[in-house]
Design brief:
Blueprint: E1 2-4, E2 8-10, H1 12-17, E3 26-33, E4 37-44, E5 51-54, E6 67-71, E7 83-87, E8 92-96, E9 115-117, E10 120-122, E11 129-130, E12 135-142, E13 145-152, E14 155-160, E15 167-172, E16 180-184, E17 189-192, E18 200-201, E19 211-222, E20 225-232, E21 236-240, E22 248-249, E23 272-278, E24 286-291, E25 294-298, E26 316-320, E27 329-333, E28 336-340, E29 348-349, E30 358-364, E31 371-377, H2 380-384, E32 392-397, E33 403-405, E34 419-422, E35 430-434, E36 437-441, E37 449-450, E38 453-454, E39 464-472
Parallel strand pairs: 2-6, 14-38
Antiparallel strand pairs: 1-3, 3-4, 4-5, 6-7, 7-8, 8-11, 9-10, 12-13, 12-39, 13-14, 15-16, 16-17, 17-18, 19-20, 20-21, 21-22, 23-24, 24-25, 26-27, 27-28, 28-29, 30-31, 31-32, 32-33, 34-35, 35-36, 36-37
Length: about 475
């Protein structure tokens, strides 16, 4: 015996205005068979408002659907006609309303889950989404300041907020991904709380205006915020536990025995903090790279310091850790590629297959710590001078040799060294920033494609110097 569920549909204008009234739209059929689960559900509305059909060959077992509210979804409107929200007592479900085959253009970042209602599996993979949609967001540090790239469905759009100044580094708070910090060459540190809509200066208490690196520790959760670390030139470090409102100096760097040997070759009279990597497995532990001269560490968030160990990289540019690999460290350094399996107590070089060994940027697959992507050049001149530019991107899996990857990437000659990153929410995905362009790999770095970004009209072709990738609800 079949039963009929009564479903009402409110139009876009009524939902947006909050009036709650109905305006003539109706459900043509919504039947539930007690043995077979849901059949097809057809919905129709006024032609000038929308029309659409929701259907699937799969069976949906969700009881007591009460209302359907229709509204336009602005971030997705370029490829989605509309969305309907189906409310039942326990969950909110999103149904795209289309005609034809446009359903296949669903955003890859949508969260798809199998749901359970009254201990029965509710599975509608082609149509049903649970939870909230997330948007992949790329924070860029460029020669023109910070830029934010957001994926709306299958399109990428970029916008900037600071009109002048050279950005040198950028980091996003994994606990609150709409919050990011951008370090500037001569303008201190800036923060956004709305994914780049507005940037505010938060460098009061930091005496150095040349910020060279910024990192945020998700492990050190204070009032819902990750501890923020800033490195500067000359070499100094500062920490904030309140989102950049106040800072304290992590003193003691200059007292380390190796400090008198630190020197940055282009400006030999000085040096700077090149990289900060909080350890995801040890509360308060930090790894800090000085360019050039040492990879040092702190066991307590910058209160005390341990000097470089024998055999460690001398000129680390980036250091990677991994949430699934306690104790493992990967260093992309000017003096080669190094790995440690004991939290930096000892190191070994791993360069089999590398024909470029001035290593710059390293990223580890978010779901598989044995898959590594590395960018490298023959030397510092080729890495950073446009007139001599030459670089490559390499891939390694397990204990195998490095292999250069070229499919979809720019040629070696004419390309300064790239920045490579992963997104913790995407398995087997990597991102690369080469010159002023962005590239993405969805097959663990084997092949790449250039992102077709809709930039603002006034955007200049400025080199991307740093990159952070997050998902924002």
């Amino acid at each position: 015996m079949s039963s009929v569920a009564v479903v009402t549909i409110a139009c876009c204008a009524c939902f947006a205005s909050g009036c709650g009234s109905l305006c003539g739209t109706s459900v043509k059929r919504a039947e539930r068979d007690g043995k077979k689960g849901w059949g097809s559900v057809e919905v129709a509305g006024r032609e000038e408002q929308w029309t659409g059909v929701v259907y699937s060959d799969h069976r949906l077992r969700i009881l007591n659907i009460r209302t359907v509210q229709f509204f336009a979804c602005s971030p997705l409107r370029d490829s989605w006609s509309s969305l309907a929200v189906v409310n039942n007592p326990a969950n909110v479900f999103l149904f795209p309303l289309f005609g034809g085959t446009e359903w296949k253009r669903q955003p890859k970042s949508a969260t798809v889950e199998a749901l359970r209602t009254q201990s029965k599996r509710a599975y509608f993979p082609d149509v049903l989404f649970s939870g909230s949609f997330t948007m992949t967001t790329l924070y860029l540090a460029t020669g023109d300041g910070p830029v934010v790239i957001t994926r709306y469905s299958n399109k990428w759009r970029g916008r900037g907020a600071l009109s002048s100044g050279r950005a040198s580094c950028i980091a996003a708070d994994q606990l609150q991904p709409a919050r990011a910090f951008c370090g500037m060459r001569q303008q201190g540190i800036w923060r956004t709380d709305d994914a780049g809509g507005q940037w505010l200066p938060v460098f009061q208490g930091i005496p150095c205006d040349h910020v060279t690196t910024v990192a945020i520790s998700a492990a050190q959760d204070t009032n819902g915020l990750g501890a923020v670390y800033v490195g500067t030139e000359p070499s100094a470090m500062f920490r904030s536990d309140d989102g950049g409102e106040t800072w304290r100096n992590c003193e003691g760097l200059s007292n380390l025995p190796s400090a008198d040997k630190w020197s940055f070759p282009p400006r030999p009279h000085t040096h700077h903090v090149r990289w900060i990597a909080p350890d995801p497995h040890a509360h308060g532990k930090l790894y800090v790279a000085i360019e050039a001269g040492a990879l040092i560490s702190s066991p307590d968030g910058g209160v005390t310091w341990n000097d470089r160990v024998c055999g460690s990289p001398y000129d680390t540019h980036e250091l990677a850790t991994h949430a699934q690999a306690p104790g493992r460290l990967w260093s992309a350094a000017g003096d080669g590629f190094f790995e440690s399996e004991n939290a930096g107590s000892s190191w070994r070089k791993c360069e089999d297959g590398l024909d470029f060994r001035y290593c710059w940027s390293v990223a580890i697959d978010a779901a598989e710590p044995e898959t590594i992507i590395l960018s490298a050049s023959p030397g510092p001149q080729q890495a950073h001078r446009a007139e001599q530019a030459e670089s490559g991107i390499y891939r390694r899996t397990g204990d195998g040799a490095w292999q250069e990857v070229r499919v979809g990437l720019p040629p070696r000659e004419g390309s300064r060294v790239a920045v490579v990153r992963t997104n913790s929410a995407e398995r087997a995905s990597f991102y690369a920033a080469a010159e002023a362009d962005l590239y993405r790999s969805s097959d663990a770095g084997a092949t790449w494609e250039r992102l077709d970004v809709e930039w603002q009209a006034d955007r200049r072709d400025s080199r991307i110097l740093d990159l952070a990738v997050v998902e924002i609800d």
